[in-house]
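Fig. S4 source data, part A: sequence.
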Amino acid sequence: MTVRARGRLGPGVAFWIVGATFAVVMAFSTVPTPLWPLYQRADGFSTVMVTVAFSAYAVGVLIALFLAGHVSDWVGRRTALVPAVVLELVSAGLFLASHELWVLLIARTICGLGVGMTTATATAYLAELHERDRPGSRSPRPGHVATGANLGGLGAGALVSGVIAQVFPGPLTTTYAVFTGLLCLCLVALAVVPETVPTSRGWRYRPQTVIVPAGARARYAVVAAAAFVAFALFGLFTSLGPKILTDALGVSSLASTGALAAAVFVCAVLGQLATGSWAAPRQVTVGLGLLFVGLALIVLAGVTGTALWFAAGGTIGGAGAGITFKGATQTAGALADPAHRGESLAGIFLTAYVGIFVPVVGLGATAQAIALEAAVATFAGVLLACLVAIGVAARRTLR
C-alpha cells in the first residue's frame, strides 16, 4: 500500500476546503427547489412530473451510495471526491443547456450520483484531516462541520437560488452559472489538498451491502421507519414546497419560497447540534414528537390555506427530522457489530432516501385528482398515522 502525494497544503487549510466543497455540492442539489414552479410555467409539465424530476435525484443518490459511496476507502478520498464534483459540473451544464423534462431528469440523476459519492467520502475526509491537523483531539469539529455542510448546504442552495431568481434576470440559467463557477473553484482547490488514505493495491470492487443486526431487528426497523418519515418531510419542502406556497397559499416571492426550504434544513442542523450529547433513544423520542407537531401544523395549513402554519410546520418538523435522523443513525450504529457498522448504516440511508421521493410522488399524483391543499393535508395526515405507529413501537423497543 502506498500513500499518494500529499499536496502543498497543510491539513488545517485542507479541512476547510473539503468542508466548503461538501457544502457547495449539497447546495447545488437544492438549487432547483424554488425554480420548479418556473419550470412548470415554461414547459407546462404537471405537478406529478415535478415530483418525478425531483425523485430522479434521490434515485441517483441511492445508486451512488451503494455502488461508489465506499470506494474512497480503496482509491483515496481525493481520488473519489474529484469525480463527484465533475458530475455536479456535468449536471450544471445540462441545466444550462435546456429545461426540457427529459434533460432535467438526466441532470437530476447525475446530480444525485455526485451527491451520493460526496456524502460518505467528504465526511470521512473531514475526520481524517482533522486528526492530522490536531492529533489526539476529541473535538466534535469534524462532525459539526460535516453536519453543517450536509444539511446546511441543502438549505443554502435553496435560499441562494431563490434570491438570485428573484433579483437577477434569467432565473433558469443565472443560478446554475453561479454554481458552475463555485464548483470549478472547488475542483481547482481540491488539486492541492493532501490525500489521507493509502492506495490499496490489487483491491477488488464490491458494491456496498446492507446488513440488519441479528437479534435487534425490531429496534432497527423502528429507527429505519423513523428515518423514512423524517426524509419524507425534507422531500416535501424540496420538491412541491414552493408550488404549495405559490399556488395554494398565495406566496409569490421566489426568495420567500427558497428561504422556507432553507429554514427547514437550518432547523434540522440546529436541532442536531442542540441534542448532540443526548442518548440516541431520547433523540429519536424528541425528534418524533417535533415531527408530529410539524406535520399536524402542515395538515392545518392544508385545511385552512394559511402559509404561516405551513412555515411553522416546516421549521418545527425540520428540527424534528434532523434530530430523528441523527438518533436513528446512532442507534443503528450501536446495534451493529463493529465490523458491519457501515452495512448497518447503509440500510438506514437506503430507507431514508426511499422516504425522500416515494411519498412526494404519491403527493404529486394525488394533487392531480384533488385540490393541492387537500392533497397536502392528506400527505401530512398519512405521515402522522405512520408516526403514531412508530411512536408506539419505539416505546416498546427503544427503552
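Fig. S4 source data, part B ends here. The first helix runs from residue 11 to 29.
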